[in-house]
């Protein structure tokens, strides 16, 4: 049995438990967003085949798929304007609202215009999620595990695509949407308990909260050196002014534990309007047409 001294010493040296928890719970937003993105792959053939509560024409089906992609750049622009005002955590939590609303609209809609609205708001949320998550993870993650935590979004992305296709194949559109609705709800309930980025808190001169956040994330009681490096980085980066054009280039996010900013690409989603995504969303239709031809 470990002594009290040994346990306290381990805590003083730090651990990464909450950094893992922050990344896992934050990745649920990516999971939900990816499910919205890939939803047409299995559901669109049903809507075009007159086998559901709504029947779509080919033109309406195309618009339903592309509206999500059109919403992504809008979400990235919203992030650029609000991420340093609302904060990383709060902005991520707000994306649960359009995500939940979109699944409810998909489940109970009887008009194609409602489906259009659902796809558009889900795309806006996607643009926010994929812009904020890299910033948040970079700012809360220790250098030793930052690469691992950063790669979690890619893994979650693939899992979301897989799950929504499985649901779409075996369940009705309404049932699949209601099951998918659970993901943003779980994200909202779990990520609410995670700490805010200490870098953002220092930007807002909330040094006490930043110190508390650092203690939780670092898993240790002595965070004076980390707090000093963060404060210096905020002062240094505060003199660097950016413009809207930066959204198309890079976003500087402070990486916890290094004392310097790290350049991260913001997904304004140039590929959102590419034929790659449109092909992915229409995979089922492509295969069906190939057999017919």
Structural notes for this entry:
With 293 residues, this protein is mainly alpha-helical. It has 14 helices and 2 strands. A two-stranded antiparallel ribbon has the order 1-2. The longest helix has 32 residues. The chain is elongated. It starts with a helix and ends with a helix.
Q: What is the residue-mean pLDDT, rounded to a whole number?
A: 80
Integer-rounded radius of gyration: 21 Å
| Gap from first CA to last CA | 71 Å
Number of helices: 14
Largest sheet features: 2 strands, antiparallel
Low-confidence stretches: 1-13, 247-254, 257-276, 284-293
Query: How many strands?
Result: 2
Strand order of the largest sheet: 1-2
Structural class, judged by helices and strands? mainly alpha
Q: Give the H and E element order.
A: HHHHHHHHHHHHEEHH
Measured as a percent range, the helix fraction is over 70%
* Overall geometric form: elongated
Task: Name the beta content range.
Answer: under 5%
Blueprint (SSEs and pairs):
Layout: H1 4-13, H2 17-48, H3 58-86, H4 88-94, H5 96-108, H6 112-140, H7 146-170, H8 173-180, H9 182-191, H10 198-203, H11 207-218, H12 224-238, E1 251-254, E2 261-264, H13 275-281, H14 283-292
Keyword list:
293 residues; mainly alpha; 14 helices; 2 strands; 3% strand; disordered C terminus
Summarize this structure briefly:
With 293 residues, the protein is an all-alpha fold.
